[in-house]
Structure prediction request, 150 residues.
Amino acid sequence: MMQKSDLNIRFATVEDISAIALIERECFFSPWSEKAISDTMCRQESIFLVAEAGGEICGYIGCYYVLDEGYITNVAVSESFRRRGIAKKLIEELILRARKLELSFVTLEVRSKNEPAISLYKGLGFCDVGLRPRFYHDPDDDARLMTFYI
Ligand SMILES: CC(C)(COP(=O)(O)OP(=O)(O)OC[C@H]1O[C@@H](n2cnc3c(N)ncnc32)[C@H](O)[C@@H]1OP(=O)(O)O)[C@@H](O)C(=O)NCCC(=O)NCCS
Prediction:
């Protein structure tokens, strides 16, 4: 069983890209390619964090910002590491860094049927700010826009 002290949240580096892409493929029907991950990670104005447990990358969060607006592009935790507070910790760390950068908010889109993710965001204080009907395909779904105001 993983102890809380085993978990390390740190900035992602290019060496982490293949591990991140592996989790993307495990978690999403249309996963981001290594190139797309690398493009977000290497942007000047981005915050890309990984969670490491016992030396293994088990989750990540990517965010880019424009002026004082943060856009979370992806959050995922490997299936065998779920329900241990890892996504919560990743988002809390991201918000901490966003606050230091004086961002006003961080926002994201989430499938309206993705109950685990919606419950995670609500629990952290994200609020509903809009809906994009039929935004997702395979399977079709609406996108809920959720924002955390800093
Ligand atoms: C959504 C996801 C990132 C959550 O990761 P996680 O590390 O398991 O989440 P945490 O352990 O930090 O959960 C924190 C809280 O979120 C909520 N939550 C997380 N998973 C949940 C689930 N399956 N069902 C209901 N609530 C859930 C709970 O409130 C939980 O607190 P609790 O465990 O004390 O009840 C993970 O399920 C995942 O990677 N899913 C696939 C990818 C994805 O959908 N990403 C989001 C795209 S917008």
